């Protein structure tokens, strides 16, 4: 048994030496360097920029990008500047372009029109505005918060020049104020007997500026 074991061990050693020799002959320094470069190229993402989402979708895996790469899309489908990464879905194991962030420089558009509706009717054109752009009409500024700006409901009135904080006793006193977009008002004795806070801003339901309640509470004094 010992003699058989020695022969078996001899054959194993010969086979191992042959494998090591084959590996040593086959893996040259150049091939080793190429393999390392390929590994690093795969695990370290690159960042690039394209003009739009259609250009991004036309890129070829392995030629224009690889797994994990990040692309900035100058103008996404909603008009914003977006950040996409080519990532794997853990459940399906499929790769796709995933939007991971967006950014866009705000621009301020000034119009001679006196109302937001007239600006949309007379001055606005599709593609003029991106989300977070601002339209200034007289002394009121409107922030584009959704869609492309084709309807008044796409905008939110804001105040770029500062805001006023009012404190009044009743709703009746609040209604006598002459607020500007961005102003707020604390009503110390609201109709329900509570203290309430209101912001003066654009109401999508009525399409006009209005006092919108942002919170109510009871103030308790302990003496």
Number of DSSP helical runs: 5
What is the tally of beta strands? 12
Determine the fraction of residues in helical runs and give it as a percent range: 25-40%
Helices and strands, in order, run as HHEHEEEEHEEEEHEEE
Distance between the termini: 100 Å
What is the 3D shape? Answer: elongated
Strand fraction band?
25-35%
Number of domains: 3
| Low-confidence runs | none
Largest sheet: 4 strands, mixed
Rg calc: 33 Å
Question: Which structural category do the helix and sheet elements fall into?
Answer: alpha/beta
Q: Average pLDDT, to the nearest integer?
A: 80
**Widest beta sheet: strand line-up:** 1-2-3-4
Characterization of this structure:
The strands form three sheets. The protein has a four-stranded mixed beta sheet. The protein has a four-stranded mixed beta sheet with strand order 5-6-7-8, covered by helices on one side. A four-stranded mixed beta sheet has the order 9-10-11-12. The radius of gyration is 33 Å and the shape is elongated. It has three domains: 61 residues; 51 residues, no CATH class; 53 residues. Helices cover 26% and strands 33% of the residues. The chain is α/β, with parallel strands linked by helices. The N and C termini lie far apart (100 Å). It is built from five helices and twelve strands. Strand 1, helix 3 and strand 2 form a beta-alpha-beta unit.
């Amino acid at each position: 048994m010992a003699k058989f074991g020695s022969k078996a061990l001899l054959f194993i050693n010969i086979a191992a030496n042959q494998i090591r020799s084959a590996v040593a002959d086959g893996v040259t320094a150049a091939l080793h360097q190429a393999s390392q470069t390929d590994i690093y190229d795969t695990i370290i993402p690159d960042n690039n920029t394209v003009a739009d989402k259609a250009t991004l979708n036309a890129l070829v895996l392995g030629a224009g990008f690889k797994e994990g790469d990040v692309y900035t899309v100058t103008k996404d489908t909603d008009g914003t500047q977006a950040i996409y990464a080519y990532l794997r879905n853990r459940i399906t194991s499929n790769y796709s372009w995933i939007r991971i962030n967006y950014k866009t420089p705000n621009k301020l558009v000034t119009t001679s029109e006196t109302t937001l509706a007239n600006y949309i009717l007379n001055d606005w054109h599709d593609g003029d505005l991106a989300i977070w752009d601002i339209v200034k009409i007289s002394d009121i500024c409107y922030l584009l918060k959704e869609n492309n700006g084709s309807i008044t409901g796409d905008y939110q009135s804001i105040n770029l020049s500062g805001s006023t904080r009012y404190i009044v006793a009743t709703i009746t006193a609040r209604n006598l104020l002459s607020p500007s977009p961005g102003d707020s008002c604390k009503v110390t004795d609201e109709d329900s007997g509570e203290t309430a806070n209101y912001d003066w801003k654009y109401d999508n339901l009525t399409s006009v500026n209005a006092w919108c309640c942002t919170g109510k509470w009871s103030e308790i004094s302990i003496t």
